[in-house]
Amino acid sequence: MTQDPAETRDTAAAPPAETAAPSPAVPDVKPRSASGAQDIDAATASLTVEEDEESRLPDVEDDSGEVADGPLAVGRAAIEQAVRLAPTSPGVYRMLNAANDVLYVGKAKNVKKRLSSYARPTGHVMRIARMIAATVTVEIISTATETEALLLEANLIKQLRPRFNVLLRDDKSFPYILITGDHWAPQILKHRGAQTRPGRYFGPFASVGAVNRTITALQRAFLVRSCTDSFFESRTRPCLLYQIRRCAGPCTSEIDFPGYTELVREATDFLSGRSRAVKGLLAAEMEKASNELEFETAALYRDRLAALSAIQSQQGINPRTVEEADVFAIYQEGGYSCVEVFFFRTGQNWGNRAYFPRAEKSFTPEEVLASFLAQFYDDKPPPKQILLSHDIEECELLANALCIKAGHKVEIAVPKRGEKKELVAHALTNAREALGRKLADTATQTRLLEGLASTLGLPKPPQRIEVYDNSHIQGTNAVGAMIVAGPDGFIKNQYRKFNIKSEGLTPGDDYAMMREVLQRRFKRLVASRAEGEAPAKDDETPRWPDLVIIDGGRGQLNAARGVLAELGLETEVTLLGVAKGPDRDAGRETLFMPEREAIKLEPRDPVLYFIQRLRDEAHRFVIGSHRKLRKKDIREAGLQEIPGIGPTRKRALLHHFGTLKEIERASLGDLGKVPGISAESARRIFEFFHPGPA
Predict the structure, then answer these.
(1) Whole-model pTM?
(2) Cα separation, 441 vs 435, whole angstroms
(3) What is the spatial distance between Cα 243 and Cα 359, in angstroms, rounded to a whole number?
(4) Taking every annotated instance into account, which residue ranges of this chain make up the domain UvrC family homology region profile (predicted)?
(5) What residue ranges of the chain have pLDDT lower than 50?
(6) Which of 337, 454, 555, 645 has a C-alpha 20 to 30 A away from that of 130?
(7) Using the 8-state DSSP alphabet, how is residue 330 labeled?
(8) Helix axes 295-314, 275-291, angle to 10 degrees
């Protein structure tokens, strides 16, 4: 959803009632590819990219748009043609340019009247004038009600990411805590995605870290199991979590069914907001055990109470009068916006998160916040109450749309006094501080990119850097990886891994693996360019890299150079090889570029530190990908893949540890205690699960 010259609009996804259009038919809406989406933490687009996008837009003479002919007149003519066929009912309209890219998605109670406002010759601000000048086609979807139009508009904006709309730039689902309901001994676990599994869901939490910390504390407090059902069913003796008092041990009947059911009920009550009653009950039990001189039992209750206190202390603000609400506060500075969101459920604070939506600098805080809310709840269940820092237009319409979506009443308000106002003020303070940090980080990143360009002799700071690395163990489970960085830091949703597929590849041939990875990557890019793929929009990172960094010395660099030469790209892509220092000493790396002398930077040079960060991130990602691939093979092939471990020793290991996961976690000393496992075999097993880098 977005603000247009006449009104603001808002939120989530609903099917249209009927379709109409000025063109013969409305084409299907196609979601953009994953490569077009920005990572949640890569917030504000760089000024350089925005300026490049501005240069591609048609020019208009002044802010009023008073131009008798030229692109603005052509755009108005296209809109006037659409007005003739537009319905007077509610609907959603899309403005498209000559390349069939969607420029803007809007909704209106009366589509004909709304489009007519664009067709008038004067009175448009520069942003609207440029949008009109770029428009060649208008498509319309009719809906039964204005509420349906609002929901559809938000859905289309998230799919199409138009140039002139406010963009949320975050499609990640929030994590929840799930207490399962499909097993006699319920399990507590972290959950993301569709809530299809039977059980009780609690959240949303602002981050995975908050969920993990809470689950760990809940295990200490209520001793509810976190293991999978298959692990649970295979146990013949309690696992380590039982020994460290983080599980009651229902798998081996260390606790009976009624006792475990009571623990689950207490955990559910605590997460449902009845924390005071649960703590009172535990305190009473502790006192009773102490009076009966059962000090070990009393100590157990004491530890459980301490775990509950730890959970609540981590949550920070816990309101007295707000049971269930989301709090939104927006702060603007330097043409950028930050929206801080706090989540309160069952009277407890489940954390907060900062968002940096992309929006034209001319948008007011109210306009950005209205658009943000519409897209935010497109795929998330709204709470009973939404508290805002600014009044927004069409507040009642948005509330009605969320009511339909949630199936319960949703109140949207800007509190004027009391605890609710204090919560909003606290969120606003966090928004201001988060935007300050983001602007400082962006400035630092810009300086580093400028320094990198100066050091390497690049014509301008790179907007897209790709870093490549590969990993293997004696040639097995070979995998390559690419990470991407830009003006806003690492762009994790554009990372890629490459399972090495070449047959006849000599095990451990790093050059051949690098050649395969680069061939697959750049052949795809060349093919997309041959098919006339449209250039990236201003909120996207360019698809072609300005700089390619290879983890390796002159040999790896020449292998990469050969691949680019075969594809005719040697002059289009700048290559940089990063060789480790003597004895792999960080800070003494040597930089290699084609047909240039080796570059040695001072150990404290910020540019060298920046290159190290890029290289280390690629190394982290490829090692993680390699381990996942190796673990998959281990599960499929078993422990016999380890040299010297046959069926007898495998059986002894499984009898001792119970599962492959426990064997993987075991220390070298624990492995040596298994009957039939010698010190050498223990070393081989440990090194198999904990390899050094390739």
Answers:
(1) 0.61
(2) 10
(3) 54
(4) 327-564
(5) 1-55, 62-68, 316, 538, 636, 693-694
(6) 337
(7) E
(8) 160
